Amino acid sequence: MAVPGKAAAFRLPPLPTVGDIIKLFRLKAQKQLSQNFLLDLRLTDKIVRQAGELKNAHVCEVGPGPGGITRSILSAGVEQLLLIEKDARFIPGLQMLSEAAPGKVRIVHGDILTYKMEKAFPKHLKKNWEDEPPDIHIIGNLPFSVSTPLIIKWLENVSKKDGPFTYGRTQMTLTFQKEVAERLTANPGGKQRSRLSIMSQHLCTVENCFVIPGEAFVPKPEVDVAVVHFTPLVQPKIQQPFELVEKVVRSVFQFRRKYCFRGIETLFPESERLKRTEHLMMTANVDPTLRPFQLSMSHFRNLCNTFRKMCDEDPSLFTYNYREELRQQKKMRRLLRSTSQPKQIEEESQL
């Protein structure tokens, strides 16, 4: 009997197990989509707990598959659950869960990379960026093939305060390959320090929550999986446009094992490369003999701020593409060789 004045806790009615759902609808993980199913509800409950208090919250689950994490989210007492699933084979099983939780579940058959998240939740949930995070959460056991491009996309959304972050500092709880999770959370000097470390940590508080062994999944992946929690920062650690920060960070890590000046050189055209690189390093007060993984967040902040001033003075720097210049040089060399070859043949024939 429910206690007077208190809403009864939501409980799903008896349902087929996740394993039964897989058999019932003859679901098979597709290797080309990097699909791996998590059947142990103790582990799905543990993932959902990392998101924090979900009672009466609005949640978006990315790639629910056969619905293991979905059950744990519903059992946490959410107000509304939006499911975005690209693979049509899983929709009937998710509809079964929707019918077991009337009025709570909305299913979208679509691609999370193109879905317009800025209209996914009610407007009244919006909060100012400086306030506490809104009662909105994104949770997902992401396919390995989509996890990195998706988190980069969402980090850009954080920077621009659009997409799912039009509602405020929406929190995310996501799974990644263990190695990718280590990159996301790596500190300066760590062997996993990378572009992902800087791009995520300058915009969010990033926490590597726990590791799930590969054998917990069906089929078993070749790597372990880690659960990572993101909370956007009120103020980014590098206050420059996302595209500029990514350009600088990507260039620095282009030659990961070499001195950092080698990557920074690629920001500038060959004709003025040495002079501009020296100016950037000196003004930003960065030791050119440090390796990329040794650079701190303040080093990257100084590099980005200085590069921004250089771009303001010469806007062509921002659009310069090192790899395109290499391609053009290679094309020119081929052209020169092809034009000089007939002359050489003619000279040899005359001799």
Automatic annotation (TrEMBL):
It is found in: Mitochondrion. Pfam families: RrnaAD. Keywords: DNA-binding, Methyltransferase, Mitochondrion, RNA-binding, rRNA processing, S-adenosyl-L-methionine, Transcription, Transcription regulation, Transferase, Transit peptide. It is an enzyme of class 2 (transferase). InterPro entries: KsgA/Erm (IPR001737), rRNA_Ade_diMease-like_C (IPR023165), rRNA_Ade_methylase_Trfase_N (IPR020598), rRNA_adenine_dimethylase (IPR011530), SAM-dependent_MTases_sf (IPR029063). SMART domains: rADc. Signal peptide: none annotated. One of its GO terms (cellular component) is mitochondrial matrix. Residues 43-234 form the Ribosomal RNA adenine methylase transferase N-terminal domain. Its EC number is 2.1.1.-. Belongs to the class I-like SAM-binding methyltransferase superfamily. rRNA adenine N(6)-methyltransferase family. KsgA subfamily. This is rRNA adenine N(6)-methyltransferase. It comes from Podiceps cristatus. The lineage of its organism: Eukaryota, Metazoa, Chordata, Craniata, Vertebrata.
